[in-house]
Amino acid sequence: MVGSSRFHILIFGSDLRGPVRERVAALSTQALGPGGFFSRYGGAERFNIVLIVKALPHETEGLMQGNHDDNKDNLDYLRETATVVYDDRPPDMDAHYWYGINHARGAVVVVRPDLWVGTSAWPEDTSSLDDYFGGFLVEQGGKTEGLNGLSTGMSREIAHLGDISLPELAEAVVVSNHKELRSPISVR
Q1: What are 56-93's pLDDT values in tens digits?
Q2: pTM here?
């Protein structure tokens, strides 16, 4: 994954059918739509959205269309923002398997710019993603920057410290990052 200054949001959407579709549609409208964390905290400059599907390209095009009158089935924002990865490997070798994700449930995994897993959530649990990013990103007139001009990995706890030494800063980041690593799903 390229883009050392961006967060990579991995959305495991399985075959985009059934219950997982409704969960991914909730993520699309609530997190990627207007007012969601994607637009509030920097959009494509800050986030790399990757949709991992268990379908072929010609199947995915039709699956991404959905019913525009029903938000339970609306994948418009996801279609506009995501890079799609087509996972055609057998079930015991696909990406869902290696990340320990149930195909019927789906999941979202946030990979930080340093390529460590920051958090994971169910696709419909957009409030936990909002809380995660709200803990260290600041909205500023449509443009989001790291706190006090620091990199986006800094937490709210160190934002008010102003000028601190590099060793103190490194220690604060390590402590902060350990607090952020929580996961409702197993990640291998």
Answers
A1: 898 888 888 866 555 567 899 999 999 999 998 988 89
A2: 0.72
DSSP string, 104-121: TT-EEEEEPTTSSEEEEE
Residue 108 contacts residue 97 (beta carbons within 8 Å): no
Q: Which of these, 125, 147, 89, 113, lies nearest to 8 by C-alpha position?
A: 113
* Termini Cα distance of the chain: 17
Measured CA to CA, the distance from residue 71 to residue 66 in angstroms comes to 9
Residues 120-148 have pLDDT tens digits of 999 999 999 999 999 999 885 644 444 33
- DSSP secondary structure letter of residue 75: -
Per the CB < 8 A criterion, the answer to whether 108 and 133 are in contact is: no
